[in-house]
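Design job #97: recover the sequence.
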C-alpha cells in the first residue's frame, strides 16, 4: 500500500515538472517569434553590383635626356632631342597642342676618387625632360607608347613609360552602382526573410564600401579600394551594407 502511495506521489511530481517545462518552452518559442517580428528589429545585408567599363582617356609620358661635361652643350643636345621628339609625334598624327613638355631637370655627376668617395670635381651634367600626351584615341597612343623608343635610332636617349587608362564618367557611374548594389541588398534580404514569413520594411541605414576598379576577371580586392589604370577594359564593383526593418 505504501509503495502504491509513493509511486502515485512520484507521478504527480513528474507531471508537474513536465507541465512546467512545457510552459517555459512555450514562453521561449513565443519570445523568439516576438524578437523576429517585433517592432524595431532589423536585418543587415550586403549587396553588390558589378559592371564592365571601357577606358575613354589615355595618358602617356616618356622622357629623354642629354649628358655632357659642359652644361651649355648638354642643354643644346637636349633641345635637339626635343625637336626630334616633336617631329616624331607629329608624324604619328599628334597635334602640337596636345604635346606637353615639362621643365628641364638637371643633375650633376661628380668624379669618383680611387677610394670610392666623390670629389668636388664635376664629371658631367645630365639634363632630363618629360613629354606627355592626353587623348581619347586609345589605340593610337597605345601604339605610340610601344614604338616611341624608335627615337633611340635617331640619337635620342628616350624612355617610354606604360600608358595609363582612365574612365572619365566614373563619378556618375559610381552613383548608379550604389543604387544597383542597394537593390541587390534588398533582393537578398527579401529572399532570406521569405523563408521565415517576414517581409522587408523600410531602409534604416546604408553604408557604402570602397569601389574596386580592376582589370577584367582579376578578382582582386583591397580594403582601401583599387583604381586600376593599367587596363583598357575594366570592371567596377560596388558594395553597400544595408540595414532593413523586419516586418
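Job complete. Output follows.
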Amino acid at each position: 500500500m505504501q509503495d502504491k502511495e509513493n509511486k502515485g506521489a512520484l507521478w504527480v511530481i513528474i507531471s508537474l515538472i513536465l507541465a512546467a517545462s512545457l510552459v517555459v518552452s512555450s514562453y521561449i518559442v513565443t519570445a523568439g517569434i516576438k524578437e523576429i517580428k517585433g517592432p524595431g528589429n532589423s536585418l543587415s545585408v550586403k549587396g553588390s553590383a558589378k559592371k564592365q567599363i571601357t577606358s575613354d582617356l589615355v595618358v602617356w609620358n616618356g622622357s629623354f635626356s642629354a649628358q655632357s661635361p659642359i652644361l651649355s652643350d648638354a642643354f643644346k643636345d637636349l633641345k635637339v632631342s626635343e625637336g626630334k621628339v616633336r617631329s616624331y609625334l607629329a608624324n604619328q598624327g599628334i597635334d602640337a597642342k596636345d604635346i606637353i613638355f615639362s621643365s628641364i631637370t638637371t643633375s650633376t655627376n661628380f668624379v669618383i676618387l680611387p677610394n670610392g668617395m666623390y670629389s668636388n670635381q664635376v664629371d658631367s651634367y645630365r639634363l632630363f625632360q618629360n613629354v606627355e600626351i592626353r587623348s581619347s584615341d586609345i589605340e593610337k597612343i597605345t601604339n605610340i607608347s610601344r614604338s616611341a623608343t624608335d627615337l633611340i635610332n635617331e640619337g635620342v636617349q628616350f624612355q617610354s613609360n606604360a600608358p595609363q587608362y582612365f574612365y572619365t564618367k566614373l563619378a556618375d557611374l559610381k552613383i548608379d552602382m550604389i543604387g544597383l548594389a542597394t537593390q541587390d541588398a534588398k533582393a537578398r534580404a527579401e529572399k532570406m526573410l521569405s523563408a521565415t514569413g517576414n517581409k522587408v520594411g523600410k531602409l534604416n541605414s546604408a553604408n557604402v564600401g570602397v569601389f574596386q576598379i580592376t582589370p577584367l576577371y582579376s578578382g582582386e580586392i583591397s580594403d582601401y579600394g583599387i583604381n586600376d589604370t593599367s587596363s583598357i577594359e575594366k570592371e567596377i564593383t560596388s558594395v553597400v551594407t544595408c540595414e532593413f526593418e523586419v516586418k
